[in-house]
Model the fold of this input.
Amino acid sequence: MLPLPEFTLHSPRTIDEALGLLAKPGAMIIAGGTDLLPNMKQGLHQPEHVVSLQHLAELRAIRVEQKVLVLGAMTSLAEVAEHEDVRKYATALAEAAGTVGGPHHRRMGTLGGNLCLDTRCRYYNQSQFWRSALGFCLKKDGEVCHVVEGGKKCVAAASNDTAAAAIALEAVLVIRGAQGVRRVAAGEFFVADGARNIAIARDELLVALEVPRVAKRVSAYEKLRRRGAIDFPLLSVAVRLDGSAVEVVVSALAAKPRRINGAQKLAATQVEAIAEAAARECNPMPNIDGDVAWRKQMVRVMVKRALVRAIGAAQPST
Amino acid sequence: MSDRLIGKAGKRGDLIKRARGDTPFTDDLALPRMLHGKTLRCPHPHARIVSIDTSKALEIPGVIAVLTGRDLPERFGIIPWTPDEHALAIETARFVGDGVAAVAALDERTAVRGCDAIKVLYEVLPSAVDLDSAITRPEIGLSAKKDDNVSKAVDLAFGDVDGELAGSDVVLDGDYFFEGTAHVPIEPHCTLAQYDASGLLTVWSTTQVPHYLHRELSRVLRLSPTRIRVIQPPLGGAFGGKSEPFGHEFTAAKLAMVTGRPVKFLISREEEFYLHRGRHPMRLHFRLGAKSDGTLTAIDARNQIDGGAYSSFGLVTTYYSGQLLSLPTAARSYRFSSTRYFTNKPACGPKRGHGSVQPRFAFEVMLDRMAEKLKLDPIALRRKNAVGGNTHTINGMRVTSNGNLECLAKVEEASGWKERRGKLGFGRGLGVASSAYISGTNYPIYPNEMAQSSVQLKVDRSGVVTVFNGASEIGQGTDMLMATIVADELGLPLEAIRVVSADSDLCPVDLGAYSSRGTFMNGNACLTAARLVKEKLIAAVAAKLEVPETSVFVTRGALCVRGREGDAVPVEEAIQLAEAKFGALGAVGSYKTPPNLGGEYRGGTIGASPAYSFTAHVAEVKVDVETGVVEVVKVWCAHDCGKALLPTQVIGQIDGSVYMGVAEALFEEHLISPNGLHRGPNLLDYRIPTSLDVPQIHSMFVESLDPEGPHGAKEAGEGPLHSSIPAVANAIYDAVGVRLHALPFSPGRVLEALRQRKA
Ligand SMILES: Cc1cc2nc3c(=O)[nH]c(=O)nc-3n(C[C@H](O)[C@H](O)[C@H](O)COP(=O)(O)OP(=O)(O)OC[C@H]3O[C@@H](n4cnc5c(N)ncnc54)[C@H](O)[C@@H]3O)c2cc1C
Ligand code: SF4
Done:
């Protein structure tokens, strides 16, 4: 078996206490641990201090406020997927959460952990032995990139299912740090750097995700994967419709989920044209799955399928 | 006996224990003062080991001992003619993952640190990481003589192939490629070794072949077999991946001897992919000839086999890649030429359906194409060329019971083949295929005249009977089968039978759980022993009641006398009478294959079996033409197992085979990168299906009552996998009109084929 490296586990009871612990050098947050622990076994992170959020009850709730839906960072993905209000006001997010891993991952895994998920790459998410045999890469311990020859910046893929949905739904991340609370739009939270694609400092804490409640808004999520479960996205597509206005976000490409510019000038019903724009703007890389040509072809298909479902949901049922 | 347990659906007591965590697997065992072992593995596909410096590792507190190849210089290998492995590489390491040193430490973490501290200087050598380089670059010299990379070549011909091809009305050619696959048992390999103060070495290991392990431990450790005891705890799946000795079994034992403390090696999921012995990648070129009336005239097969770094069972694999093509559908002539090459990759070996699953895929797809060409129903074509029962195949294998036609009829009927095939609309289709497999080989791995399977019964006067049984329970249910056979013969309840299996100190030898030999060979041995005990019970009861022995018979719970139903003697009492009359009660039974099962030519015994199982599949698929995703909606499988002794288990084996076949058809792909590195030695990158990806499976059995099988039974563990893959391939053709030549049928490949069809 791969042994877990040694570390000190902390279980703070308040957010302030947690923030204090996170100020220790080499500290990392553990929420559900479904990403952090396997990564630690593979030697990708060696935190000296691991700060658990399990006892911070205030991070666990889902609240329906007048203008927004507030989802605590520690809400389990299973709950996000099944919660009636989330399904209603943030359909794409509920659908996305429902496609993560398998039932066990969704029960243990949290929304916060998913939003802060480390980027993935087939040359990175491997054991220490494997990576040493290949030669380490930019993201961890090395100087080269195995995906882009001569590349100087890591292009590991955002592989979290909820990222595209959060962006499409114009969600806002609520972050606590030593300086207090700040809010960051999901569209700005994810940045184009595979080494770390999230705009949150290591001593900050994601507290909640706020999703606006907008009348008549509909959304949908489509995920490309090889099997019915326990597969990270090979493509991740979220669409949002406000009347005829449409937003399309595609992820699992590189570090930053991509908003399809070409879609913004089109009406939602121009399905083919929107799919075409997405196919033009998205370039899957050999960073996650071998069959890049297939993933490229599937951009159009997945965008179309998401749009068709969203349009269907927007029709008043007669 | 009238109320037999044999033939009835029933629960398996041991499965409840497994589900509840009560079954002690090898890793559940722990001994006082136990150390943990780790193997340092080579990061290069082919390298000369210039030097190894272990001094820094030994300085780490908690590291107790370090081994290198020189500590275990003896070669081993499952086939006695090709021992080419070392417990740890000595001069050269032959693939990424080859073991070069081993550490025993107080805990796993320290053992890993110990490995990291060992300095190995390598000189990287040219490597062959695919078939093409193995073929075109003989100078790499991976063979024993170092003059090429050939592991084994077999050329066999039966009948006038060239003449038949020349006289054929239709001749088809096809090229096929089967990427290798892995076994992926839930339980990884694990070995615990203890060397006690009296000098006895005990090895608990996840093996399907405890007897061969016993022999090889003795050879490699240069220790008398009288000082070695091998115990195989229950296994969490094996599928052929545990059917030969592995390096860590020797290093665990050696480290236990060196340190005087128990040592355990638990293999990681990643290392599982390096130990491998999975299904060989094969490139197959097939030529098939037929007359316009559907008579198959000739099969000409050329197979290139990618063997990986070591011989493993390769000699047998090479034969199996052709020998089993003469059943159940045969041509008037046939030949095959198979060459297995060494490559610098994890060694391939036997996986469920050893060596014959790949050619079966090629051949059954060729049959489908031939049927289309001849405008015949594919089932009709198979019927027309079916080999019957009580005959010999063209390559000289003796066939007795044969339920092939019944299998075809069952799947034809159940799937609605006649009404539905070709009529499901574009995107949906049905495909058929059929196959045959051995019920054990007639040839022990090392030549000898002794029994292949033996069972010893101990009868206690309380009414408990213990079956000491050399066979390996690997999840397939042999323990339950032995208990049931004994319970039925002696009229005892199942709960009164204990089974002790696979312990070299307690049980007589059985050769192991491979080549689907358990039910047939072990079952026969057990039946023989049980009948000997039964005779004693009958004799004792007859003497007591003063009736002829022929009038006494066994019922559940009692021995009765024909015509004197009131005089029943409870079995427990009969046992006591027999013990009083004969002394301590027990019996041994053994099984050895009859002579002359195969052809009279070199290799004629390989592939020959005392009985063959038969299988037919119909698969129904749905193809999404936008994404290329193939969904196997339903599979109908009929399997001739001779007699379903434990029907629930037979159905379980068929279900499992279909699952595994569909997994290989759609998902599994054991890929090594051009740099020799495994593409992704983990279960996210190496995809096996989840429960959501499993088709509906309709499993049926056919009972052809084999004349030599125990109660007529034959194998059910491997046969039902074979034809599942070509059935899916043929169904895809029926659905969308494309032929796929390479496995797996991934969406990218399907889309590409659809694009080419349009063009
Ligand atoms: C077999 C397998 C399959 C999987 N499949 C999928 C999949 O299909 N899709 C998918 O998206 N994911 C998948 N995952 C990854 C993972 O299970 C999910 O992303 C899950 O949501 C992670 O949540 P967690 O609570 O377990 O995170 P953790 O593992 O606890 O944390 C993940 C990261 O987020 C940080 N973090 C956690 N919470 C916070 C917070 N509140 N503030 C700041 N940082 C935080 C941690 O420090 C860590 O770096 C899979 C994992 C496995 C093992
Ligand atoms: S994209 Fe390049 S740098 Fe980033 S993880 Fe992959 S190989 Fe490493």
About this structure: The radius of gyration of chain A is 19 Å.
